[in-house]
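Technical note accompanying the year-one report. For the benefit of new consortium partners, we illustrate the data format agreed upon in the data management plan: each record pairs a sequence with a structure-token string. No post-processing was applied to the example shown here.
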Amino acid sequence: MHLLMHDKVPLAFLMASSHCRLMFILESTRTHPSTFILKGIPGLETSHFWIAFPFCIMYCIALLGNLTILLVIKSEPSLHLPMYYFLCMLAIIDMVLTTTTVPKALSIFWFQSHEICFHCCLVQIFFIHGFSILESGVLLAMAFDRYVAICKPLHYTTILTNSVIAKIGLAILVRGIGMMTPLMCMLGNLHFCGTNIVSHSYCEHMAVAKLACGYIITNNIYGLTVAIVVVFSDCMFIIISYVLILRVVIGLSSKQALLKSFGTCGSHICIILMFFTPALFSFYAERWGQHIPIHLHILIADLYLLVPPMLNPIIYGMKTKQIREQVLRLFCQKGT
């Protein structure tokens, strides 16, 4: 018995020592900080409190508008058409994009809550960039929908069936996840040994990657490749779709049909420009815009994820007669 007691003491001591050594090794090989510090909008720190008010108002309008679009389309059987299914996808993506960024930005502006944990930062990057890719894909799908509706109206229901729409939505989702997964793996494997201050109001891929020690050329090349594949290929196919649409629209003999086609396509083109123009500016400024004031760059990057989600339901609600009528009917019923 006495011998067993003596045997257990060194055994327990060895186990405790091994545990301590293991913890030391894990801590010494940890390659990322536990938290990042988001600065908000550098250079405008004294105005953060007041900047938060328009941000909050736009966020509420975006949520209310997109939720209204979803409710109206769900409750009205006459709107169960491909165009409105794609509009529902756009509304869901917009709500996710704004909710991923704006609440944290408001907590920075109003409550000085600048810290964000490393894994939360990676999740935010995944949703911001991943859902931006999804939105680009949905805008392309909506352009294809308009092409089929105007150029091949007799085959519209046979081409864009529910199964085809589901496959398009799945392809858009798989493309977004497939492109973001390697990027997240590369970010997770970066070694951070310096500052943990991110000069942004949310975690942006290159803003975080620039804090890493050593070379980040792989991240830069991959991010550039994804941007070229997504933005330029989607824009090219959208332009081709609208060139073909314009050829058909100009040849329409009915003035009413001509105006209706221009109205429908015009609203879609406005939304495309609102999404891609600030996205391209933010992408350029993050990599080569050293001469651009940082507060202007960050402010536009914030508005890029806030203004399109706010204006999309307003533009489609005003331009689309069926949605406008259903919204008015919905609010009139609530009023009575």
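Partners are asked to follow this layout when depositing records. The CA atoms of residues 85 and 165 lie 8 Å apart.
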